[in-house]
Every structure is written in structure tokens, then in C-alpha cells.
Design goal:
430 residues; alpha+beta; Transferase(Phosphotransferase), domain 1; 2 domains; 7-stranded antiparallel β-sheet; two-stranded antiparallel ribbon; globular; nucleotide-binding; transferase; Kinase-like_dom_sf; EC 2.7.11.11; serine/threonine-protein kinase
Length: 430
């Protein structure tokens, strides 16, 4: 899916060149009003809305593949490219864009757009009511921004983790001459950032609930998916479903790191993420592992409880300086419990060898922390209860929880015949 806010994640070879204006929104009384933009968005697709338009669609689909129904199996069990079609309500055939009718835009980004779609020719009343979120990526822009590998990683990881209760579910992927398409379950509750902005901050039970669901997601990605580092955790990348549970979206920064010969986590050196949430080792270009996600969880819990992140400035370089030199400090108002402050400090430990979640015991150590006392982890994973915030969703295709964004791309690069001859092979199995 994608980042769900106009703030732009950062992607570059090093922090020294980071720059760009901050996008300000009124969030809290301390004047923090949105996450800083970085150099350009990798996959910052902001969910929103408006009237129908078809000029983005075009061409004939050249391939399609459906994700397996089970969570995280990582195996392609397709038969003639259509396994999972019946379970997901999709037509049992190779997909093309003409199979769907566009209802409205759900978000726009640097080289992608997410739209709400329905079946063009429904076979049953149930199919007529079914809607999906379709992520559309412009091939020419993907190439220009050197994001081919990241887009392919996103698709593969989404396929591998489809079915997890707190991760957006990929149903299919396909492409035509100009565009790549990822078909996803529609999550109608909107982004968690919108609710945080509305309430200014969450009380501790609400923060605990959403933090616990995120712990389960990260535990799954790190420990059951061969070391998948998500690398862009923030409220804008968390949607709420109709029952108020989290759905993690936008895997554009995600990368499966695996393990080295000694059983340790493999390091990677790409500078990516959103400035307020980037771990110190990423800024220092020391090589980073899945430990960056636990740092980001600490920042996220802090923002849940206070309404703003601990490190913030209009200039991303100043944010990086704060992260490296300034400890996390809680103001006296609002009052935050000692358990909440302690888990944030243990997660936001600069020395990753001492960082909670990255020490022996992994996610189990986090789940055993006093901040999560009383959490029934099995009941949570099974979604036995509604979340503390239940979105006002009236029907399956209701999109009132998303903002309104322009329907049309103003200018974008053409996927020329020369580009096609050079790069088509990169998208063959998309």
C-alpha cells in the first residue's frame, strides 16, 4: 500500500543531503504539526478521495498473479496464475485493469496512486458489493527514481505475509504497458494518524492496544519471516479496519534481511525511513538490522501518548542531530506512567545491542514488559474484541474516513518504447 499522509519518507545514500520543507498539520499544543518530508517519497501514497476518472487507466494487462491465501507461507501455489481467486471473490482469470471500475482516489504519492475499485462485470450480488484498494505504480517513475528492486521486494513480501490479521492483504498483482498494479483488501477506517490528530493524543489503554498489535506484527515479520525489516513504522502507515484493528500498509521500504552464517541478523546500509522515526544506526550509516523497527515502536508509543514525536524540527538534519545527541525526555504534562516511560526508553536505546526487542528473547521480552500487563496476546491475535476506536464505517465501500485528493496526475514520465525495451524484463513476473 503506502504512506498515508502527505509527509514524504526519506530515501538516499546518506543524511548529509537530506532537505525539504515540512508539511504542517495541527496535531498538538506544542506546535508539532506533521512529520517532516525527506528527499522524495519512495512509496508515500496518501489515502484520500474524489470523483471518478479513468485517464490513469489504459493498456492491456500482460500478466497477473494472485497471492496465496495463507499467511506468510512464502510459496507460490498458483495454478495457471489464479489460485486464491475464488476465496477473494476475484474472477478466475488473468486480471487486467478493465476488470475494475474506479470509484475514487484513495491516495497519491511520488510515483503511485491508490484507488478504490469494484468489479466491472460482477457475476453475483456479493461481487457487486465487493470493493478493493488498487495501488497503481508508474513504471517510468519507478525506473527514474531507481526503485525497481524496492517495488519488487514490496510485492514479494506482501505476497509472503498476506493473511496476517494486522497486515494489509495482497490479493493479486499484474501490469500493463505503463503501470504496475497491486490489488489489496480495502481497509475502510482510515489512517491512525487522523484519529491521533483528532484526539490530540491517546490515553494509555488505547496506546497500549495499538502498540500491542504492532508488536505482534513486528514479531511475525522479524522472527517468522526470516528477518523482514519494515523500516517505515509511523501512524500514517497504520490503517484501521471496520472493527478498529490495525492494518500495517506500505511495504515499500521493507526488506528481508535473513541471517548470516553465525546466526546473526544480516545488516543493510540503505538510508530510508521518515526522519522522526529513523534509528541512530541508520543515520550513522553503521549498517542496520530489524532493530530499527523496535526503535521506531518506541517513537510511536511516545507519539501516541503525547501527540508528537520526541525529535522534531522543520529541518531533517536537525532531527538527525537530536536523535544522535539528545535522549528521549517526557514533559510533565501530560502525565505518563513510569511503565510507559520505561518501555519507550528501553526501545529508544541508541546502543542496539541493549535495545529491547533486539536482545535475547526478542519480542517476548517486550510482551513481558509491565507496560503490557493485562494484555491477552492470544485474544488480541484472534481479534476477539473491537478496538478502542471503531471507525464510522457505514457500508463496505464507505470512504468517508479518507481525505480528498486530486484525481488526475498533472505531469508524469512516459514509458517510452526505449524504456520498454530496456526494462520490460524487470517487470515480467510482477
Amino acid at each position: 500500500m503506502a504512506a498515508l499522509h502527505p509527509s514524504q519518507p526519506l530515501y538516499n545514500n546518506g543524511p548529509s543531503s537530506a532537505s525539504g520543507p515540512s508539511l504542517l498539520k495541527d496535531v498538538s499544543s506544542n506546535s508539532f504539526s506533521g512529520h517532516s518530508s525527506g528527499l522524495h517519497a519512495l512509496h508515500d501514497v496518501t489515502l484520500s478521495a474524489s470523483a471518478s476518472s479513468t485517464n490513469l487507466f489504459g493498456g492491456t494487462a500482460s500478466s497477473a498473479s494472485l497471492a496465496p491465501a495463507g499467511p506468510g507461507q512464502g510459496q507460490d501455489t498458483r495454478h495457471d496464475g489464479v489460485v486464491g481467486a475464488q476465496e477473494s471473490g476475484l474472477p478466475p482469470k488473468t486480471l487486467k485493469i478493465d476488470d475494475f471500475v474506479r470509484i475514487r482516489t484513495l491516495g497519491t504519492g511520488t510515483f503511485a496512486r491508490v484507488v478504490l475499485v469494484r468489479h466491472h462485470h460482477p457475476r453475483t450480488e456479493e461481487e457487486a458489493r465487493q470493493v478493493y484498494a488498487l495501488k497503481i505504480l508508474r513504471k517510468a517513475a519507478v525506473i527514474k527514481l531507481k526503485q525497481i528492486d524496492h517495488v519488487r521486494h514490496e510485492r514479494q513480501i506482501l505476497q509472503d505475509v498476506s493473511g496476517h490479521p494486522f497486515i494489509t492483504n495482497m490479493l493479486a498483482s499484474f501490469h500493463d504497458h505503463d503501470f504496475l498494479y497491486i490489488l489489496l483488501d480495502y481497509v475502510p477506517g482510515g489512517e491512525l494518524f487522523s484519529y491521533l490528530r483528532k484526539f490530540r493524543r491517546f490515553d494509555e489503554p488505547t496506546a497500549r492496544f495499538y502498540a500491542a498489535e504492532i508488536v505482534l506484527v513486528l514479531e511475525y515479520l522479524h522472527e517468522q519471516q526470516d528477518g523482514v525489516a519494515y523500516r517505515d513504522l509511523k501512524p500514517e502507515n497504520l490503517l484501521l479496519d471496520e472493527a478498529g484493528h490495525v492494518k500495517l500498509v506500505d511495504f515499500g521500504f521493507a526488506k528481508r534481511l535473513g541471517r548470516d552464517g553465525a546466526g546473526g541478523a544480516v545488516e543493510t546500509y540503505t538510508l530510508c525511513g521518515t526522519p522522526e522515526y529513523i534509528a541512530p544506526e541508520v543515520i550513522q550509516n553503521m549498517g542496520h538490522t530489524t532493530a530499527v523497527d523496535w526503535w521506531a515502536l518506541g517513537i510511536l508509543i511516545y507519539e501516541f501518548l503525547t501527540g508528537y514525536p520526541p525529535f522534531w524540527h522543520q529541518n531533517p538534519l536537525e532531527i538527525y542531530r537530536q536523535i544522535l545527541e539528545t535522549p528521549v525526555v517526557f514533559a510533565q504534562d501530560p502525565s505518563i506512567s513510569s511503565a510507559a516511560q520505561d518501555i519507550v526508553h528501553q526501545l529508544c536505546t541508541v546502543d542496539r545491542s541493549r535495545r529491547l526487542g533486539n536482545i535475547n528473547g526478542g519480542a517476548a521480552k517486550i510482551k513481558a514488559h509491565p507496560f503490557f500487563d493485562g494484555v491477552d496476546w492470544d485474544a488480541l491475535l484472534e481479534r476477539r474484541d473491537q478496538g478502542p476506536i471503531v471507525p464510522p464505517v457505514r457500508f463496505a465501500g464507505d470512504a468517508q474516513c479518507f481525505d480528498i485528493y486530486p484525481e488526475n496526475d498533472v505531469d508524469y514520465e512516459q514509458y517510452t518504447q526505449e524504456l520498454a525495451e530496456q526494462y520490460d524484463s524487470c517487470f515480467t513476473n510482477f
